[in-house]
Protein backbone atom coordinates (compact mmCIF):
# COMPACT_ATOMS: atom_id res chain seq x y z
CA UNK A 1 0.00 0.00 0.00
CA UNK A 2 1.48 3.30 -1.04
CA UNK A 3 1.37 6.48 0.99
CA UNK A 4 -1.02 8.30 -1.30
CA UNK A 5 -3.57 5.50 -1.31
CA UNK A 6 -3.42 5.40 2.49
CA UNK A 7 -3.98 9.13 2.72
CA UNK A 8 -6.92 9.00 0.30
CA UNK A 9 -8.59 6.16 2.21
CA UNK A 10 -8.10 7.93 5.57
CA UNK A 11 -9.51 11.19 4.20
CA UNK A 12 -12.46 9.30 2.74
CA UNK A 13 -13.20 7.66 6.09
CA UNK A 14 -12.88 11.04 7.80
CA UNK A 15 -15.45 12.47 5.40
CA UNK A 16 -17.78 9.52 6.08
CA UNK A 17 -17.58 10.42 9.76
CA UNK A 18 -18.49 13.99 8.83
CA UNK A 19 -21.49 12.74 6.88
CA UNK A 20 -22.75 10.83 9.91
CA UNK A 21 -22.18 13.84 12.17
CA UNK A 22 -23.88 16.27 9.80
CA UNK A 23 -26.86 13.93 9.35
CA UNK A 24 -27.33 13.76 13.14
CA UNK A 25 -27.25 17.58 13.34
CA UNK A 26 -29.94 17.92 10.63
CA UNK A 27 -27.67 19.92 8.33
CA UNK A 28 -28.92 20.75 4.80
CA UNK A 29 -29.25 17.72 2.54
CA UNK A 30 -27.26 19.37 -0.25
CA UNK A 31 -24.25 19.67 2.04
CA UNK A 32 -24.53 16.01 3.02
CA UNK A 33 -24.79 14.97 -0.64
CA UNK A 34 -21.75 17.05 -1.55
CA UNK A 35 -19.77 15.56 1.32
CA UNK A 36 -20.81 12.03 0.37
CA UNK A 37 -19.69 12.57 -3.24
CA UNK A 38 -16.30 13.74 -1.99
CA UNK A 39 -16.01 10.79 0.38
CA UNK A 40 -16.93 8.31 -2.34
CA UNK A 41 -14.38 9.83 -4.72
CA UNK A 42 -11.61 9.72 -2.10
CA UNK A 43 -12.36 6.14 -1.14
CA UNK A 44 -12.61 5.01 -4.76
CA UNK A 45 -9.35 6.73 -5.69
CA UNK A 46 -7.58 5.24 -2.69
CA UNK A 47 -8.81 1.73 -3.39
CA UNK A 48 -8.02 1.94 -7.10
CA UNK A 49 -4.47 3.10 -6.35
CA UNK A 50 -3.74 -0.03 -4.33
CA UNK A 51 -1.10 -2.34 -5.75
CA UNK A 52 -3.55 -5.28 -5.77
CA UNK A 53 -5.13 -4.27 -9.09
CA UNK A 54 -1.92 -4.42 -11.14
List the helices and strands and how they pair.
Layout lengths: L2 H22 L4 H20 L6
Descriptive account of the structure:
There is one protein chain. With 54 residues, this protein is mainly alpha-helical. It has one domain. It has two helices and no strands. The protein starts with a helix and ends in a 6-residue tail after the last helix. The model has no long low-confidence stretch (mean pLDDT 93).
Which structural class best describes the helix and strand composition? mainly alpha
Number of helices: 2
The termini sit apart by 12 Å
Chain oligomer state? single chain
Spatial extent as radius of gyration: 13 Å
The ordered H/E elements are HH
Quick summary:
The protein is mainly α.
List keywords for this structure.
elongated, 78% helix, mainly alpha, 54 residues
Amino acid sequence: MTGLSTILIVVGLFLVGGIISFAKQDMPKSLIVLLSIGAAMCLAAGVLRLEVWN
